[in-house]
Design a protein that fits this description.
With about 170 residues, this protein is an alpha+beta fold. Helix content is about 30%, strand content about 30%. It has four helices and seven strands; from the N terminus they run E-H-H-E-E-E-H-E-H-E-E. A seven-stranded mixed beta sheet has the order 1-2-3-4-5-7-6, sandwiched between helices. Strand 3 and strand 4 form a beta hairpin. Helix 1 packs antiparallel against helix 2.
């Protein structure tokens, strides 16, 4: 079932706690787990990073809201053509078009700014996210290992890109 009464808007300070909770819940439910994800220190570090991210990012964060509840979010950080985060969907709401709506919203902003390409990356074992990104027009352009600052471990990652349409 696709959500039709979804609102996507810029984050406010009042949203920070909900954004952190949704991000951590989506991460914890991910199908991309490695052994390092089971380490209590890694789990605590990731939870902390999600908690502080909304208040510390210098980028744009957009929330997906259903009624009064934030059920997802996505962000652009560091570079204008880079989707830094799409921890966008609480596990209770996955598979309903919310991640797609957030991703298309971010890509539309980039295209309106005249950017030619949108970029993002994810864990190479995150099959659900990769499937979503490919269905939204992204293609894998790199696969390898990278250090995750937020987790403090090296992970197998993929980088994806999408050519943006211009009006």
């Amino acid at each position: 079932m696709v959500v039709t009464d979804l609102t996507i808007r810029k984050i406010t300070a009042a949203d920070h706690e909900a954004v952190g909770a949704v991000g951590f819940a989506a991460w914890a439910a991910s199908d991309a787990f490695e052994d390092s994800y089971l380490d209590p220190d890694v789990i605590a570090k990731v939870k902390h990073e999600f908690t502080i991210f909304p208040g510390e990012t210098s980028g744009d964060i957009f929330v997906a809201e259903l009624g009064q509840a934030i059920i997802g979010w996505g962000a652009r950080e560091n570079e204008p053509d880079y989707v830094s985060d799409l921890w966008g969907v609480h596990p209770d709401h996955q598979g309903r078009g919310i991640g797609r709506a957030l991703l298309f919203h971010l890509c539309a902003l980039m295209a309106a700014e005249g950017l030619m390409i949108a970029r993002l990356d994810t864990h190479a074992k995150n099959k659900g996210a990769i499937r979503l990104y490919e269905r939204c027009g992204f293609t894998i352009v790199w696969r390898g290992r990278e250090f995750s600052r937020s987790m403090g471990v090296e992970l197998e990652k993929v980088h994806l890109e999408k050519r943006l349409a211009h009006r």
